[in-house]
Amino acid sequence: MRIGELAKRAGTTTRALRFYESEGLLEAQRTPNGYREYDEHHLRLVREIQSLQAVGLSLEDARPFVACLRAGHESGDSCPDSREVYRRRLAEVDACLDRLATVREFLLARLAFQDPCLVPEPKEFQCSN
Amino acid sequence: MRIGELAKRAGTTTRALRFYESEGLLEAQRTPNGYREYDEHHLRLVREIQSLQAVGLSLEDARPFVACLRAGHESGDSCPDSREVYRRRLAEVDACLDRLATVREFLLARLAFQDPCLVPEPKEFQCSN
DNA sequence: GCTTGCGTTGACGTGAGCGTCAAGGTTTAG
DNA sequence: CTAAACCTTGACGCTCACGTCAACGCAAGC
Fold first, then answer.
1. Which nucleotides of C are covered by protein (CB under 7 A)?
2. Which domain holds residue A19?
3. With bands split at pLDDT 50, 70 and 90, how would you rate the model's confidence at A74?
């Protein structure tokens, strides 16, 4: 299948797929006229990337998973590097949950006119997805 | 006090303070030589902005609070617009907590070789702080 | 033959909150 | 007097995952 169809079936855009390729995450065959040609394996790979993004992982974080699949493994998360990414993300999510619980208490207190004082985070703190 | 001292006392940078001014959040007097001049009210305002950022609000969201203070109120969150911002953020935080709990379960299951299938969010979903 | 709808590469734009020069003027310590 | 340490404005850089043109080639239906 060509890039338009893959995009449609994966629920994304051709731009995103070309971007993945430029990042070395999605390599495609070329037909004689220069068109990219994909198969079902590519579709599964794109779905894997989307799944990783859905848990808040970056495309950089997706590299170990792609490498794992390219190494012939059944699933992208059966390799040590991939599992390490999962563990790291889990720790981030836990920290994020803690922080958001604190923020929630702060907001509730403020809305109840209690005037608390939120302790600011020492370093830049980021929660995503 | 001048901009360097205000930055130091607020634990931020001169660049940030000038940026706040460019956004209309922090207006300063000028000495004859063009230097910005601040007082304790400005310091409290900067602290207020930092506090709002700490709960994940944007500088845009801080506008109602600044306006509330400029209108002569004791605290920036005693005006309806400010409280509405709090309520909106609270809803965001709640949604974020739900989403992160789901993500957490997904990660735990994957790390336990359970191979679940994470339902992707329909629209772009963002959690911050 | 012409239009329409695919595909290609390349380059710039987006948002948020500043960081980081650059090139100068001012104040202060020695 | 001089050098260091302030201050000024202006402009570009940064992150991240693409969106949005621009300008072009290729293929199929009428």
1. 6-9, 16-20, 26-27
2. 3-111
3. confident
Distance CA B113, CA A63 (A): 20
Residue of A nearest to B105 (CA): A90
Q: A1: distance to nearest CA of chain B, Å? A: 24
Nearest to A100 among B87, B93, B103 (CB): B93
* Domain tally, chain B: 1
> Hey, which bits of A28-102 come out as E strands?
29-30, 36-37
Where residue B126 falls among pLDDT bands split at 50, 70, 90? low
Percent of chain B with pLDDT over 90: 80
Other C-beta atoms closer than 10 Å to the C-beta of B64 total 20
B70 lies in some domain = yes
B24 touches strand D (CB under 7 A): no
Predicted structure pTM score: 0.85
CA distance B127 to B129: 7
